[in-house]
Design a protein that fits this description.
single chain, alpha/beta, seven-stranded parallel sheet, two-stranded antiparallel ribbon
Length: 253
């Protein structure tokens, strides 16, 4: 991996797009959900899933699709998901994809639904589909589903954040041509009720990614009793914020 090609900020996306806002509890990673806290405590709004009026997604930058929801939640059906896909992805008359200048990131805790939505949909090179795993139990559940059901050729990624326990990614057992992820992001939990994240848990993920030649992004660390986002204060071997679209393009952002 080229450790010189890095994203310059702790937040690896530029802007969100939420055609749906709100979500429902799924696993322990949801306990201190920042979006729910924002909606309920600050804005005094319900966090029940509902459509928004954001019909037109950004066409430039790195766009996180659904940072305040799960687009693949049980309240969505496949046809609804495809409607939102159609607002992001466009095709020429010959069926070839028409790419814009945006990179779209999707992330879910409901891997089976995401795999169902992608099964009969033309994949786009500027889209990355990932899932969250906070500890070994939830990694095993979601990873097994992903490996069994993910459509070949999808740009898969893993969000190991908030990292609440050590995770064996099992990448050493996978041939390079069958690698299920093109990127892994990891970091500790944030917020006033954040739970501990041991440094060795993050170190293990970084080491596993390096051994498998998978780009890895360390977002934030549990250091000296605080959530530290300043990469210059990280241990040197964890000062790594790689993103696959920069690596693919051979340029630094």
């Amino acid at each position: 991996m080229n450790n010189l090609i890095q994203w310059p900020r702790a937040q690896y996306w530029d802007k969100p797009w939420n055609p749906i806002s709100g979500c429902r509890y799924c696993s322990p990673a949801c306990d201190n959900c920042y979006a729910r806290e924002l909606f309920v405590s600050r804005f005094h709004k319900s966090f029940d899933p509902m459509p928004t009026n954001k019909h037109y997604p950004p066409q430039k930058g790195v766009v996180f699709v659904g940072n305040a929801t799960d687009l693949f939640g049980e309240w969505m059906d496949i046809q609804q998901i495809w409607v939102y896909f159609s607002k992001l992805f466009h095709f020429n008359k010959d069926g070839s994809p028409e790419l814009n200048d945006a990179t779209y990131l999707f992330c879910t805790k409901r891997v089976d639904k995401m795999c169902d939505a992608l099964r009969n949909y033309t994949l786009m090179g500027n889209a990355y589909f990932g899932f969250t795993a906070e500890n070994q139990e939830w990694y095993n559940r979601r990873f097994d589903t992903w490996r069994a059901e993910a459509k070949p050729g999808v740009n898969g990624w893993l969000s190991a954040e908030p990292l609440l326990g050590p995770i064996d990614l099992q990448l050493r057992y996978i041939a390079p041509e069958d690698m299920p992820f093109c990127w892994v992001a990891t970091g500790c939990e944030s917020g006033p009720r954040r739970r501990p994240c041991k440094l060795e848990w993050v170190e293990s993920i970084v080491d596993q990614c390096r051994a498998a030649n998978v780009p890895v992004f360390v977002k934030q660390l549990d250091l000296n009793g605080k959530c530290e986002r300043d990469i210059t204060k990280f241990p040197k071997h964890l000062q790594i914020r790689q993103v696959p679209w920069a690596i693919t393009k051979g340029e630094s952002k």
